[in-house]
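Worked example (supplementary).
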Amino acid sequence: MRNLRILIGGAMTLIVIVTALVALVWTPYGPTAIDILHRLAAPSAAHPFGTDAFGRDTLSMIMAGAENSIIVALAAVGLGAVLGIPAGLLAAARGGWTEELLMRGADLTFAFPALLTAVMITALRGPGAYTVMIAIGVFTAPVLARVTRTAAGVIWVQDYARAARALGRGRGAVTRVHILPNILSVLTVQITIQLSLAILAEAGLSFVGLGAQPPAPSWGRMLNDAQTYIYTAPFLTLFPGLAIALAVLGLNMLGDGLRDAMDLRRRRRA
Amino acid sequence: MGIRQCSIILHDAATNMKAFRQVEQVGGRKNRDRTSRLLASGGRGGLLHCNTRGEERLLKTNMMRRPTILFAAAMVGLLPALPALAAPPDSLTLGIALEPPGLDPTAGAAGAIRDVTYDNIFQGLTKIDAEGQVVPSLAKAWTVAPDGLTYTFDLQSGVTFSDGTPFDCSIVQFSYGRAMAADSINAQKQLFAPIAKVDCPSPLKAVITLKQPISTFLYDMAWGDAVMVAPKTAATNKTQPVGTGPFMLSRWVPGDRIELVRNPHYWGNAPKLAAVTFRVIADPAAATAALLSGALDAYPDFPAPETVVKFQHDPRFTVDIGTTEGKVILALNDARKPFSDIRFRQALAYAIDRNAIVQAAYSGYGRVIGSHYTPSDPNFVDLANAYPYDPAKAKQLLQEAGVKPGMTFTITMPPPSYAQRSGQLVAAYLSQVGINVKLESVEWAQWLSKVFSQSNFDATVIAHVESRDLDIYARPHYYFNYDSPTYKALYAQYIAATDPAAQAALVEKLQRQLSADEPNIFLFALPKIGIWNAKLKGMWSNDPMPADDVTEVYWGP
Amino acid sequence: MGAVTHYLLRRCATLVAALFFASIIIFIVLQILPGDPALVILGPDAQADTLKALRHQLGLDLPVWLRYLHWIGGVLTGHLGRSTAYDSSIANLILQRIAVTVPLAIFAMLLASLLAIPVGAWAAARRGAVDGSIMAVTQIGIAVPDFWLALLLILIFAVHVTWFPAGGFPGWWHGTGAALKALVLPVVALAVPQAAILARVTRGAVLDVGLRDYLRTARAKGLREGAILWRHAMPNALIPVTTLMGLQFSFLLAGTIIIENVFTLPGLGSLLFQAIGQRDLILVQDLVLLFAGLVILINFLVDVLNAVIDPRLAQNLGQGLQ
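After joint prediction of all chains, the assembly is encoded as:
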């Protein structure tokens, strides 16, 4: 059952990744190639997902959009990890005022939902994929910091970590040797979940026009365009949404499956 | 729809005053529910009054705060058996895409301010009618001295503002003086620059002396920026507009709607509508839904060209495709290389299929133009085919201009959908002749500072909505930096010309000169897609000026 | 008890510090925002002296620090300032918009709870196939973006059958019926993904508390299973559930703003976008501070609540974010 979930989730994630990779070298039509004669064409053999207002092939755009979603999600969560994990480790290792400062800083950052940050960055330097990456990354950092801090805190009070400290090893060394390896699995799960959240957030921000700019395809923006044509070409609302749901569902199932598998292992060990 | 407004006269005025206004403004089927509710709750032996005129009187009473009578209700709810006798409704709900930032046209440039207030709330000495002609408004007649320097206006008598303040020549002095003052925040202050002084030989006569003759003066004074405002209320017009027009503000719900009712002090013939509501619905799908469901009676500038077909096949609606003065152009920064090279600009013109752009960006509504002039003007010259779509020719010109394939420039796009769509399409066409276009979306605020004020851009898509604005190509350091001595000389001749025939000939020459130089790529004239209830009469087909003038609108049978 | 008091005091101090830092960040960002408010109001034809006059009128020619003090001083004394675009009191503007946003958020949260808590509890109590299929459905519910769901709802209930409006909000004074009708689709779109998350958490919480002790002891006392679940297991399970609801607030806020955008509802979200577009700086500052302040405050309340209920919980709070 659990392995099945990992399997299905993994397969869905793989589909999205493979699609993005294929889109790098091949799409049925150019994702930005316009064809005014065939605008707003309903799904057919030539265009399985139909065409948009400029006659662009929706399937090709969705394939190319996968790339955008993955890159933004990876970069955003990467940024969040680079900022958040060391902060969490440091807070757990030092405690006291350092911890208080870092964790309240995390609270403060967390108080700015990605949307708010994105709105402000957009106002400063225009919308775009980078804007979204930074906004989501900034929002991810405090989450990872808290998770890291909590997980590391649990390890720090274990006997082996205490013993290592008692033997005179530095906080950094203990973190490296004992803490980090032991919280890696927790972090992996959290990062998987954060990736799915990042894909959702990217779609939402692109939907309100803050994300990747045209002509770069983006699932969220495709949905925004689709709303304009909801009377004339309702099929346009369908496929980008399905793509988002597939990517998010896959990552969530993978994350949940991994978490349960780990719990099981831990319980067996105990 | 098709509901006769009735009035129920009650004695307990204070509590029902509000109810009256509510019913008054909703109109339509919602009235039914309210009526029954009000009857159930407060039907204290009132008197039933079933004609629109009665209701009109009630409204006036209401506005004058005489503590008597009360509220209007829907006939349908009361006497459902008599729909055939129903008089047409006398309220109107209009859709607008942008909410006006304030309602004072003398303190802001937004077109939406004029949409709501022009002639409805505020009036000037002259006005522009539906055909774009200058006609009398608060000035019933005028004479111009032979030297073109002295304008004598005969003012309408018996005019008061909606708060009762009388209008006379002192108001003209005040309004223009305020617009010209050092601390004026009038967005079109230059319109008043030619005025030397305003004299008042008698209360109903205004004599305006100009510093130099200006042929467009009467037209200029018809702008929304030149309306009459009273000294007492000028400072608060932004939120509580007090004008001389047939309507006045009754309620403004920011972000949603602006409700106007008849001005009881109006000097002219009372408008046929008792209440007008402007609803802000920017989203194309929501606008379509609102019209289809009857939540809106009209959308004078409909934002969803794609769904127009749906309305054309529906007998409940009138679809009126009119013209605006909007010219959508791909403005180029002629001061930058390679835009300074005419061959490069012409290559761009050949590379873009403008018919396809009109098709994709506006579902085929709108007309391809070849110069900075709109087809609605009698002196329009059709230059749409000066640069037909010809990618091969474009490539050849690019080569002559020494532009290598892979050359990159940025198109800065402001938020409106015409700009976003046209920008994307232009980028796609240019990529076919080997030019990479980077698209950059900016907010309106950034567009104004970066593109317009600082001229810091390569290219941008923008609609110029002022009519007959050939002067911008003669201005030094205007944002697109067109600098042609030939054009400037022609323009000077045009301004100095007094003979209409000579003026017309020069306007034609100016258009041809622009087409030949192609300082910007002229794309298409913005259409005005008007959709309204088929029973509605008197809506403007065209947009000679940003305005949704509903003073003559009424419901037919 | 002393430890908890100490914790609360420290937490209060950090609350104030966080709000202060938030105000500084917001103010700085808005000061470096490109675009001139006066130019936006007066448009391209405005002349230099006119722009200068307007800037003076708007107080934009004052030094930066003075403007910050004016703003924050006003906020602290309950004066949110005036909107330059609407030329009216910001407090009034925000109140009018809150009348849309807050009911939207509250109804969504209510609907989500009404759907999720019984379903989650049921799944936990039944286990087996019921549990499996409920969990599969919630898994999908979490993956569906709320704005896509909104579009699908519009497509079905506003375009195909015209039961509900596709957007817009008639206002509360035109009868509660019409207003509620306009909120139905947005509320459903917001609530479904929230409900999916909540159902999973409820299930987990009930499993944690319920199946451990309550069932055994209560059953020993001869109580029926349903009674056990509702009277004994649920109250305890609700602690982590409400905690999560508090932490979900930030997502709910962002979701509300986007959903308002889909349905063109005149709420706080559309006010924020509009204010930024018009460079209505004080209004933007107030709104962002309000949003950030709400998230900070709710995190604070959740922390305090949990410290009071169960001092051990405070440690683990941060984990439940997803």
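Two points are worth noting when inspecting this output. Residues 313-322 of chain C have pLDDT under 50 and may be disordered. The radius of gyration of chain C is 24 Å.
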